[in-house]
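Feature request, filed as a ticket because there's no other form

It would be nice if the structure record came with a short human-readable summary line next to the tokens. Right now we just get the raw output. Example of a typical job, pasted below so the devs can see what we mean:
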Amino acid sequence: MFLIFDGIKAQNSDYSPTISAFDSAYLLSVPEYPLSNQLSRHKSSDLPYKTDNSQLPFFRPVISQIGWECHIFNGICYNLTYELNRLRNLPGDLPENQLPSHFVLNFINEGEYENSSNIIRGWEVARNAGSPHVADYGGVNYGGSTRWMSGYEKYYHSMFNRVDRFYSLDVRTVDGLETLKHWIYNHMDEGEYGSLANCVVAGGNVIYDTLAPGTEEEGKVVVAAWGPWPGHSITIVGYNDSIRYDYNNDGQYTNNIDINGDGIVNLKDWEIGAFKVANSFGPEWGDEGFAYMMYRLLALNTLDGGLWANRVYILDAREHDPLLTIKMNLKHDSRNKLKISAGVSTDISSILPEYIHDFYIFNYQGGDRYMQGGTDEESKYIETGLDITPLLSHIESGEQAKFFLMINEKDPEGLGTGEIIDFAILDYTAGIEEIIYPAGNIPLQENSLTQLSLMHTVNYDEVQITTGELGDAFAEEPYSAQLTADLGLPPYRWNILHQYDQEQTTQTFPMITDEKLLINSGYAVKDLFFDFPFFDSVYNTLRLSPDGSIHFGDVNPYPFSLIVDNSLYLRHLKTVMPFFTKARLLTYGESGIWYQGNENDATFRWRTMVDGMEGSEMNFAVRLFSSGQIDFFYGDMVFPDTVNWCSGISYGDALNVFNSNIEAISSFTNGFKISFVPQDFPMGMKIHEDGFFSGTPGKDTIVYSINFLVKDSRDIVKSKQFQFKVTGSDSILEKNIPDLELMQNYPNPLSDYTWFDFSVNEESLVNLSLFNVEGIKVTTLVNTTLTADHYHILWKGVDNHHHSLPNGIYFYTLTAGEKQVTKKLLILK
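Raw output as currently delivered:
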């Protein structure tokens, strides 16, 4: 029988939060898990039919949330706790191995009990600042929704517990289902044990039932469908391919009958298979806090009972060893007026830092409260610690530098005041060295920036890029190269630093009226007459939002609620933002968005007003050129100082972000213009985080200057500029294409993983297999027909049964048709 409750559980029938527009856009911006090559996928037959990670020692006992914190309870208390324990082989039933909810939550909830947040913003805090253990914090939610923890050692311990990366998985297809099962089973072959995943579902009007007698897990609670208004978070802890539920009451359990009548048989029609999920409502929910969720719910629309956006979210945790930190005692009576940053300069005579590092905590957060969130005098004081290891990216080892503590107070009405009690830098590169600022009790500059600085020389092992140069490429032909690095602390992550030059001028504001765009479901869609190059891709369809932004792809760009920091949104979405604000901008009546364009450029003009602010009016425009240049124009801009906004362009990776830095301008001259002029970049070329640079460059002959970045596991970044020459199509005949090419695997020796790169110049049956020194085949990575192309295969050092191979010498052989190449590798774990 069906059991239908108004809420997620009977005792909490009014619990049915819905996901906000901002959280929707934020969650949709999360990058998808990088499956580097379809050939690296495993068949479903490689998996056992069931696994349950909640039975492993790393999983903490079921927990019960107290308010609207489901995303943080599931993402931090369950998922991140489990991942750190899995890495460290520690039990999850001890407070010293569990993470609290409210350390992270209270930096993003504005100090209010009813303010929730999405799971990704919680992971961002844990990636930047880490999280203490429950034993340090005092309890899972000790101090409630307002408390900020005090104590340097507690913040220092938090720095070791970090989120490394997080991704989304599209699970609406069988391929997506199988990928998720591999993640749950063995973390995509990266370890003996698997991992967890989180998803967003509806907390109200859930359809529960019990599994039928005679079926596996009979009598256990099963979710047949979630409700229609998603906003709640849960944790996927396992799967079982034999769970059965008869949706169409035909007396049989099938995966090959069209049960929903749409004329297609796919995952939406499955009646066999389910994930085991944990909830954050304590052991009273489901079966001691757990239930089964049928596989088909991954594919269903939310209105039909499926997951929000048919996505799940996964994370990697990491060990982190900070080398350089700030220790500080601070007093203030209104913490949301403050932003703490750190900086460094190699010019020790400079009064300003050359480079600034911002934090995701102590960043105009926590509401209008004392520093610790309480109401007594002691709550005005807080002792904190901040990891400034990333500043070492900007100095050489052994080089004396000036380090800055920067506290900006944004308080034009003079409501708050405070002081720096004491400040020091701690160097952990060789034991512990504390460099103490000589003065104390330094008053903070009112509504201004307070800076303190210390000189120090840090000797550390800095990462170095060892690749000498890039080989030449041929236009419209696949190209690949493996970049390499050494020293520092592996593993390394690679990226490309794009370049846009900014120019500020004046020009007549483009008061265009050619075409007023139709805004539907929160945005307008417009096709261009040309391909617009933006960073490393080209686009000819744009989405324009009344909130003052342009988006690319399928992201719903209409956010309002829960935006604490406008610039966070800029950093995490691929976007063009001439004037973005969390204040609701209206475009009805005489307001709107207009377009004018041709084969060379496209101009979009906004005329908006701030909801609830009579007399406000904003006129701004964007002009996009076929060359990739972007111009921002500002006309009559009338709005109060209380409207927080930002302006710039972004790749969405939190690295390639170009802020126009004009938010402080209180009055605009009509005709004010900002131009973003891109440096030439070979469209279609991308770099994988492992340093594999590949793609198909365009047809022109040109030499590009590309800045590559490598980051080690301590977040220390180094860069190097390479010349990348592309020879045009008229020279293609000079290219010597090898019949069959197999590169040496990298890295070699293999410790955690390695890559195999090979090329074939014609369609043929290709086999890539590995053999031990006795000539016995241990695994086959490729055995299929491939077209002429370059291929990049990831291997984790496991055999066909996913068992880790012992250390030793192995041989890998590539066969294509009648041709064969063999090379040697070493496993050394």
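Something like this underneath would help us a lot:
The domain at 3-317 is CATH 3.90.70.10 (Cathepsin B; Chain A).
The longest helix spans residues 70-88.
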